[in-house]
Amino acid sequence: MFRVAIALSLPLVFFGCSVKQSSPTLKWEQMFDGKDLNGWDVKIRKHDLNDNFGNTFSVKDGNIQVRYDKYSEFDEQFGHLFYKKPYSYYLIGVEYRFTGDQVKGGPGWAYRNSGIMIHGQDPATMKKDQDFPNSIEVQLLGGAGNGERPTANLCTPGTQFVKDGKVIKTHCIESNSKTFNGDQWVRVEVLALGDSLIVHYVNGEEVLRYNRPQLDPVGGAAEGKLLTGGSISLQSESHPVDFRKVEIINLEKYAKDPAKLQEVVQKLMAEKRVAKQ
Questions:
Q1: What is the pLDDT of residues 227-262, one digit of tens each?
Q2: What pLDDT does 25 receive?
Q3: What pLDDT does residue 17 have?
Q4: Domains defined along the chain, listed by start
Q5: Distances in Å between the alpha carbon of 89 and those of 7, 162, 181?
Q6: Cα separation, 206 vs 4, whole angstroms
Q7: How far apart are CA 26 and CA 267, in angstroms?
Q8: C-beta of residue 152 within 8 angstroms of C-beta of residue 175
Q9: Contact call for residues 94 and 212 (beta carbons, < 8 A)
Q10: CB under 8 Å to 18, separation ≥6 — which residues?
């Protein structure tokens, strides 16, 4: 695991190297089939697991839609749509867009705000009144039309991480992505390599990287239990959002072979994948 972190936490200069002819074929697994939510679980604050209150999560026009038409007000009913199985080493790709108006009672910070929660807890272990799963949040933001507002930021409900060799306890840090105003589609990818490295990409450009994702420490310790993997979920935070693509490449079989893992990552990130409008 340590060797993986050393090899892949360096600047991605090796991405310009040639890829061996024997490089394996990599195939995206579609986590969302464009038809229904089979294989996904819903957990909304103040409600039991799989009580899809107000039909918050649904599928229409080939998209996962997060909507609040049946809410009288938001009332801090934060929700998450969990995929059926956990992952540890992977590259996930999500294409999303914000649309419409924020529901009444949604907090100001949640305007055009959603997220991809990774390395998260099992939804079955969440308390009924729990707002967010303990996880690493890849925060998705839309521009407000009045300044810079990057996307693919990092927030840490119940967690922390290491960046540039230092433990970071700040709840949210910004990426260096551009701002995406309006209802345009955006592609965010996340490379997660167990408990060693996580990298965020927006439309094919790296915007943030960090190491050693971990739970909040206990008993006065500086660092907490390392997160080697966990659940993946999509967030409902009071602003309507569509997800048209959720796909993943499982890299688990390369976890114990740093050289092959580096080769595979090189091949994957040599292609710049940009959301089409």
A1: 999 999 999 999 999 999 999 999 999 999 999 999
A2: 79
A3: 44
A4: 2-269 (2.60.120.560)
A5: 15, 18, 32
A6: 19
A7: 9
A8: yes
A9: no
A10: none
- Asked if 135 and 230 count as a contact pair (C-beta separation under 8 A), the reply is yes
- Cβ contact 268:27 at 8 Å: no
**CA angle, 37 as apex, 34 and 40 as ends, to 5°?**
130
Strands 40-44 and 186-193: unpaired
Give the pLDDT of residue 8.
55
Phi, psi (rounded to 5 degrees) for 108:
-55, -40
Q: Report the candidate in 67, 36, 45 with the shortest Cα–Cα distance to residue 242.
A: 67
Would you say 251 and 90 are in contact if contact means Cβ atoms under 8 Å apart? yes
Pick from 259, 264, 267, 269: which is nearest to 3 by CA? 259
pTM for the whole structure: 0.92
Q: What is the DSSP string of the chain?
A: -HHHHHHHHS-GGGGGSPPPTTPPP---EES--SS--TTEEEEETTS-TT--GGG-EEEETTEEEE--TT-S--TT--EEEEESS-BSEEEEEEEEEE-S-PPTT--GGGTTEEEEEEEEPPGGGS-TT--S-SSEEEEEE---SSS--BSSEEE-TTEEEEETTEEE--SEE--SPPB--TT--EEEEEEEETTTEEEEEETTEEEEEEEEEEEPP-TT-SS--B---BEEEEEE-SS-EEEEEEEEEE-GGGTT-HHHHHHHHHHHHTS------
The amino acid occupying position 49 is L
Residue 154, sorted as left (phi over 0), alpha (psi -120 to 50) or beta, turns out to be beta
Indicate the average pLDDT of the chain.
93
Give the number of other CB atoms < 10 A from CB of residue 69: 11
The identity of residue 113, as a single letter, is N
